[in-house]
Task: structure prediction
Amino acid sequence: MIDLRKRISNVLLVLTILSLLTALIGCTTETPVAVNQDQGSNAASASGEGKTESKAPAPENQTFAIGDKIALGDNVLTVNGFARSQGDNEFDTPKEGHEYIIIDLTIENGGSENISYNPFDFSMQNSQGQILDGAFTLTEQDKQLNSGELAPKGKVSGVIVFEQPKGDTGLQLIYQPNFWSDGKIKIEIK
Result:
């Protein structure tokens, strides 16, 4: 009888721990927020007085545009532009019927603690519904985004290269900086 109680007690303890872990892992949901910077009057000082920053919640599944400044938690992303390329040389070219999409972006730390950044936080969806990771290429190698950390108010810029079907106009860049969260930013590439 005592042995049965111990077993039941152990099973309940394990189930409780698993439930807590599941709740902790699954409970973080962040929503992307559009960040607008309104410039103050010409009388504003260099210290930033007169400059206001407002954040408006984005509707669920909203896609943003190139040039939008979007916050997701402490991560603030801006896609500065993009280019299409057939590669830098004859040895580094996309496969037949494809091209490289070179995304120029900036990540800022809008929080009070260090954040990490990584090119593996990005993927790209094409018009066929395929979601692909960045391409391993030497194209724009000297400008490619590396991984690291950003201190509060820190900023890093770089490019990420994807290989996609040639001429695809239904591309979306996906940024998901937190593996444990469902929060992601989607930006139309056109």
Q: What stands out?
A: The first strand starts at residue 33 and ends at 38. Residues 38-54 have pLDDT under 50 and may be disordered.
